[in-house]
């Protein structure tokens, strides 16, 4: 990402979080002055957990990709698999769209279809490079001033990306296409497992028709 009700940190409407990443903003319960999408509220909760629990650094032993080119990373990514969390639970046809903003940061728009509610859920936030521009470590926010880590540790910018946040509880397998060939999928699962991720817990996302 009211009695007190919590909205996930960094959410504006989700503007790599794209997992999917990724503080809580508490407001009085009752009728909110501004309607917030459920997807946003859950994502804010995730971002607070990440910001408080593990910060913006990658997990120990996980090395973000070098020779990173942000411009080649922009565009649309489809979520193939993820370690599940409340803010994405039950969603299908999940995708992340990244585009450059005039100030040099990245506009992030995440969307997914909720078949139970029969509607699309979206969230918008922004991302920025965490350090050197040639290293695939970014910070993403859906509700400033809270930021969560977004680290790409396996990448072919034309085909696939493996992304984590500040702990090994977060993993997203993304692809430019809606599906991945089985040999490549096995190879990426092996890469994630070797980096210490529990790939047996992955949820495989239903793609769009």
Number of strands: 11
Please estimate the helix content: 10-25%
Largest β sheet strand count, sense and barrel closure:
8 strands, antiparallel, barrel
Number of domains: 1
The mean pLDDT is 82
Terminal Cα separation, in Å? 27 Å
Overall description:
This protein has a single domain, classed as Lipocalin (Beta Barrel). It contains 3 helices and 11 strands, in the order ββααββββββββαβ. Strands 3-4-5-6-7-8-9-10 form an 8-stranded antiparallel β-barrel. It has a two-stranded antiparallel ribbon with strand order 1-2.
Would you summarize the structure shown here?
It is built from three helices and eleven strands, in the order ββααββββββββαβ. A hairpin with a 7-residue loop joins strand 6 and strand 7 (137-143). It is 16% helix and 36% strand.
Keywords, please?
Lipocalin, 8-stranded antiparallel β-barrel, 16% helix, single chain, 209 residues, alpha+beta, two-stranded antiparallel ribbon, globular
List the SSEs and their pairings:
Blueprint: E1 5-7, E2 25-27, H1 38-53, H2 70-73, E3 75-83, E4 92-100, E5 106-114, E6 119-129, E7 137-143, E8 146-156, E9 160-164, E10 171-175, H3 182-194, E11 202-204
Antiparallel strand pairs: 1-2, 3-4, 3-10, 3-11, 4-5, 5-6, 6-7, 7-8, 8-9, 9-10
